[in-house]
Amino acid sequence: MIMKTRTLSRSAFIILVLMLLPAVLASPNQKTVYVAKFEGVITSYSVDQFSRYIEIAEKNNAEALIIEIDTPGGSGQAMQEIIQRIKESKVPVIIYVYPPGAIAASAGTYIALGSHLIAMAPSTSIGACEPIMGYASNGSIIKAPAKVRNFYVAYIKSLAEASGRNVTAAERFITEDLSLTPEEALRAHVIEVIANDVPDLLKKANGMKTKIPVKGKGYVTLNFTNARIVSIEPSFKDEVVRYISDPTIAYVLINIGILGLIFGFLTPGWHVPETVGAILLVLGIIGLGYFGYNAAGLVLIILAVIFFIAEALTPTFGLFTVAGAITMILGGILLFGGGNEYLIQRSTFSTLRAVIIAIAVMLALFFAFGVSAVIRDRKRKAQTGKEEMIGEVGRVVQELNPEGMVKIRGELWKAESKTGERIGVGEKVRVVEVRGLTLIVVPEGVSPDEKKEV
């Protein structure tokens, strides 16, 4: 019996060890690959987004960071800042043109060539990097001058040379506006991998060496065996900015905003057109990418303060207050972000978001009722001396026939009945005029112009 019990205990112990062994062995050395997504035009906001992705991967000591991109290009300055951030990354950054149908055009191509590894999904494209200065009023493209063009040719060639990729093809991306399919790019040694999805990418890139050195590690051989995939989702502010930073949407917002301001100034007193116009105009300017997230948030907060002050100075029945609260909340979200931000973590932001909304509401109420009341009181015409007595109500203490004495504010005054009629002791009278030190009064409830009946 004792032998049988010992055998059962030993078996149970072995089973428990076998169950816990995988977790014990896997946890300390678990390799993690972070996967993030970037869509839309590259602006100054994109720099913050790429930096956030890289910092999250660095903080968690990731094996690599894969950034799925689908972009038509964008700001040259922002593109250079992103490439510099990739070069300073302590983890390998893989640019993956995904999903099928996505493109990495113009600035997106530069970013890809500046990364540690490039992968493309089927039915995607890369290239078309000719720099432009914008669009003419008739919609035609304004090409960059020769010196700008030559700078970008030299820059893209240096990126290709540094990573050992095809320098000739890189130059043709600008000089001939060349675009390549995944198969063409792979044959031309522009990219390293064609993959259907992230698991396929990890399988094919496993064992490859990075094309440029990783900061502090040099050239790294990628090891994705049994790697765990963790997704980094775009934050709420990323999604908002992605939509308003679309050039078409930004242009429409600016024009509607200007029209709203013009219409509001032409129809004073309504205040709705200029309020909406101001908000749309600021959002459109923010969408053009001239600000970073922090600067954009501050711009919206400043606009909110302007709305609050306007509410205090102008009676709008709460319109400016509501506009101020909305812009204050939007500004707070852009200023601090949401999700796994490098400034504010998710757990902190959930509390911060409530604080932002609460403060916006309290400020709105304060300006709507408190400050506006103070300003209205200060605007009220000051009344002192004789004018201060007009309209005051007192009680007769010595019969007015027509003169007598009244008591007002605890003080005795000589008074005279305006109508000449007798007013008895104890009756209430109201001051309608002051002559020297004599108050001209009428019985309370009687119009000053009412005549005594004869």
UniProtKB/TrEMBL annotation:
<keyword id="KW-0378">Hydrolase</keyword>
<dbReference type="InterPro" id="IPR052165">
    <property type="entry name" value="Membrane_assoc_protease"/>
</dbReference>
<keyword id="KW-1133">Transmembrane helix</keyword>
<feature type="transmembrane region" description="Helical">
    <location>
        <begin position="317"/>
        <end position="339"/>
    </location>
</feature>
<keyword id="KW-0645">Protease</keyword>
<dbReference type="Pfam" id="PF25145">
    <property type="entry name" value="NfeD1b_N"/>
</dbReference>
<feature type="transmembrane region" description="Helical">
    <location>
        <begin position="248"/>
        <end position="266"/>
    </location>
</feature>
<feature type="domain" description="NfeD1b N-terminal">
    <location>
        <begin position="47"/>
        <end position="187"/>
    </location>
</feature>
<feature type="domain" description="NfeD-like C-terminal">
    <location>
        <begin position="387"/>
        <end position="443"/>
    </location>
</feature>
<dbReference type="InterPro" id="IPR012340">
    <property type="entry name" value="NA-bd_OB-fold"/>
</dbReference>
<protein>
    <submittedName>
        <fullName>Membrane bound protease, putative, nfeD/ClpP-family (NfeD)</fullName>
    </submittedName>
</protein>
<dbReference type="GO" id="GO:0016020">
    <property type="term" value="C:membrane"/>
</dbReference>
<feature type="transmembrane region" description="Helical">
    <location>
        <begin position="351"/>
        <end position="375"/>
    </location>
</feature>
<dbReference type="GO" id="GO:0006508">
    <property type="term" value="P:proteolysis"/>
</dbReference>
<dbReference type="InterPro" id="IPR002810">
    <property type="entry name" value="NfeD-like_C"/>
</dbReference>
<dbReference type="Pfam" id="PF01957">
    <property type="entry name" value="NfeD"/>
</dbReference>
<keyword id="KW-0812">Transmembrane</keyword>
<feature type="transmembrane region" description="Helical">
    <location>
        <begin position="278"/>
        <end position="310"/>
    </location>
</feature>
<dbReference type="GO" id="GO:0008233">
    <property type="term" value="F:peptidase activity"/>
</dbReference>
<feature type="transmembrane region" description="Helical">
    <location>
        <begin position="93"/>
        <end position="113"/>
    </location>
</feature>
<dbReference type="Pfam" id="PF24961">
    <property type="entry name" value="NfeD_membrane"/>
</dbReference>
<dbReference type="InterPro" id="IPR029045">
    <property type="entry name" value="ClpP/crotonase-like_dom_sf"/>
</dbReference>
<dbReference type="InterPro" id="IPR056739">
    <property type="entry name" value="NfeD_membrane"/>
</dbReference>
<dbReference type="InterPro" id="IPR056738">
    <property type="entry name" value="NfeD1b_N"/>
</dbReference>
<keyword id="KW-0472">Membrane</keyword>
<feature type="domain" description="NfeD integral membrane">
    <location>
        <begin position="248"/>
        <end position="368"/>
    </location>
</feature>
